[in-house]
Each structure stands twice: as C-alpha cells, then as structure tokens.
Amino acid sequence: MKKILVPTDYSELADYAFNLASLVSENDSTEIHSLKVVEAPGETLFDKEGNLLDCTEYDVKPLKEEAKKAEEQMEAWLGNKPGNPHGIVQIGHLTDNILKYVEKHDIDLVVMGTHGATGFKELISGSHTERIVRNAEAPVLTLKCDRSQMKVRNILLPSNFTEHKKQNLQMVKKLQQNTGAAIHLLKVNTERDFCTNHEAMEEMKQFARDHELNNVTYNIYCDKSVEDGIVHYAQENAIDIVAIGTHGRKGISHWLRGSITEDIVNHVYMPILTYKI
Fold first, then answer.
1. What residues form DSSP beta bridges with 14?
2. What is the pTM (predicted TM-score) of this model?
3. Which residues pair with residue 88 across a beta bridge?
4. Which range of residues forms the domain containing residue 235?
C-alpha cells in the first residue's frame, strides 16, 4: 500500500479518518494525502487541468481567498499528525475532485468519515459517499467514530459465494497482512435466499481456495434479511471491519437488496471497506 487519500474538512470526523489511515497503513513509507476541496458554485468554470478560470461572470476572488485560508488551516491541521502527510487544497466539486485525485495519483485506498446514519445506508443513499464508493478506482474505507485505539483482529467478508468470478481482494488481504486479522467468511441464510449448510460450506471453502485466503473462518447465519444478518453477526463476533464487494456503478452487490431501518444502521459503528468486484 503506497498511497492513502484522506479527504478532510478539518473536523473531528476527519481526524478519526486520518488516525484510521495511519493505523491500517503498511509502514512509514506509505504516503498519506489529505485533500480539502473548497466547493465552487455550479456556474464556475475550470480548464482541462481543473484550474479555476477567471473569465466567468462569477467573481472568483472570494473562492481564491477561501482556498488560501484553507491552505493555512491544512498546515495547522497536519501540524500534529504523525509522519509526513501531504496536504492539498483544491477548488472544485467534492466528489469529482476526489475521484480525479484518486485516478491521477494512483491512490491505493480512500479513508473517509461519513456523517449521520452511516454504514450501509450511506452507501446506498444518494450521498457523496455513494458516488465515491461506486466510481472510485480504489477501495474506500468509511467510518463514523473514533477508531484510533482499534486493534484489527477480525475482518468480516459477507457474500452469497455463488458467483465464481474471482474478486479483487487485494486490499482485504493487505489489511490482513498488516494486522494479522482473521477473515470471517459469512453466508447469511434468509427465507427468500436459502441454501443448506453443506452447500454454503462448500461454496465458502471453494471461495477461500480460489482467492488463496489464509486464517479464515466459515460462518452461516440465519436472519430475516441479508443486511440484518451482517449487522447482527458483526455485533456478536467482535468484528472490526466489514468488507463488501461492489459492482461499480451498479452499487453494492446485488444480493444486498431492500431497505435497512435507521435503527439497525445506527448500530454499524465499525469501519466499512468497499472494493470493486
């Protein structure tokens, strides 16, 4: 893992994201990039390189002044952070700038805080997080509270395991390598999506062989819905990170269907790693 991006607004939640990035980074040579985007009005124009154009009817002077202030805030914010993080301030549109930065700088992982009722709801709702998760070329690790003291011992990887196409589990395996965590493969059985224990175990074992996974446990959990099963299993088994594959612009893997009540989502306080299948 060479480069991690932490989008920031200098808030407490951004502090949590930075701390988590430091925690999961491979070693001191991992670069942590902190990006602050000064949001520009819709009528603002930019050149192909993303630089602000002055030839518009909109007065860009306040934006430039805000960006200068943001640079000073960035310097102060990074002042007490460990290592030698890179601070970048850009004028633009939050999601677009993050996605372009990930691609341009070959970012390996995005770590970001999410506000409000987070977890699965954020990933499915029409939020900045959803767009970044769906479109970023790198895996995205989201969190909603302080995880600076977290010890990553258990990573939950839920799936239906019926799709035999090989998944890109590189980031999951790197996290395991860096932390020594166990990977919990989880098949949630529901009334509408049921298979026998024997079938589920064979599919999970084949999945582990196909992806050359080590230090793995195989788990079957019955619940009213797949989402409920993931949440309840995570709560009952001291899960530290939930890793979920996505189908790019189609969003969270199709086997995660249906709405999730806010009451359940608010209990998903562990970080969630999304990666493209």
1. none
2. 0.84
3. 35
4. 154-276
- Of 152-166, 176-190, 194-208, 253-267, the one with minimum mean pLDDT is 253-267
Please tell me the distance from the alpha carbon of residue 178 to that of residue 1, in angstroms, as a whole number.
Answer: 10
Q: Considering its fold, how many domains does the chain have in total? A: 2
How high is the pLDDT of residue 258?
A: 40
User: Are both 126 and 170 inside the same structural domain?
Assistant: no
Which residues in 54-114 belong to E strands, given as ranges? 86-92, 109-113
Q: What is the pLDDT of residue 125?
A: 45
The amino acid that residue 19 corresponds to is N
| 149 in a structural domain | no
- CA distance linking residue 92 with residue 104, whole number of Å: 16
Answer yes or no: do 187 and 139 share one domain: no
Percent of the chain whose predicted confidence (pLDDT) is above 90: 43
- Sheet with 241-246, strands from edge to edge, namely 86-92, 31-39, 3-7, 109-113, 140-143, 272-276, 241-246, 154-158, 182-189, 216-222
